[in-house]
Amino acid sequence: MTRFLLIGAATFAGSFLATVLAIVALAHLEFARIEVADFSVPVATAEGNRDGSVRVLFVGDLMFDRYIRTAMARDGGDAVLAGVREFLQDADLTVGNLEGPITPHASVSQGSNVGDPTNMRFTFDPSVAGLLARHGFDLVSLGNNHIRDFGTAGVVTSRDALDAAGIAYVGDPTGMTPEPSIRTVGGMRIAFVAYSDFVAGDADRATLAIETAERIADATVLVAHWGDEYEVEPPQRVRELARRFVASGADLVIGTHSHVIGASERISGVPVYYSLGNFVFDQYFSSDVRCGLAVTATFLQGGDRVRIETEGTRIGMREDGHTALGCS
Questions:
Q1: Where are the alpha helices (DSSP H) in 135-190?
Q2: Chain segment 9-18, per-residue pLDDT in tens
Q3: What gap in Å lies between CA 79 and CA 202, rounded to an integer?
């Protein structure tokens, strides 16, 4: 693991990153914080590839309750991701949407039936944070409609568990985690910003974070939880949001929420994936929900701009609760 440095810097009118206040070595991870405007931005560093490229893997919804919890108890937590472990670990950074909180509470959805009041209320065992770390996850989004299933307390315990596991996060609905979150890999600074349809006024906050990222990072990724469930085509309002985020400086837009693989397009040359569908989930009623998409984005330094090439890999949700490469 790389070491993290904690760096504080302050910005004044017309300039930023003006003063380095402190450098502190922390354990075996490397953290940095850059003061921009009136808030601090988390920064992390890691090794890059010899050709100067950075490969970031994006996957869809990660849900570890209901039948997935049963499968983990039966087979062991690692078994759920064993079929994709090398795939996840092969990237320089791996990013997913954590579709619920990590809490010490017992499950209320495990064993429930579709339509039951508790069927859509999720909580993930505290061991899930370590499971994600062991399988290569570096950053997750908390910006979704289930992260508050156990209230603000569930958000706090999620943050604590992820911090302990060394996993960064964006999309904190409490507003207590500054964005953008910047990962520096091989000298390339990649900023991550989240947007959630389920937080009032979040588009304005995300836009501001993207604009901040454009000033201090080489590339900016917007991860969004939006749209309509089980619909391939995004509603017009989501397409308009994508255009807004691209106009603000996003270089790649990755969406989740619909539980199916959504449409994709390029807006002013920027790749936009409206939904990656599921990655760990107990939905099996159609091939649309059983099949997800993982997107590998290769960031290449070229002159003044970073070029991004993307490639998709189909992912399957098996009925034993395990995730596998390939889906038909």
A1: 151-165
A2: 333 333 333 3
A3: 36
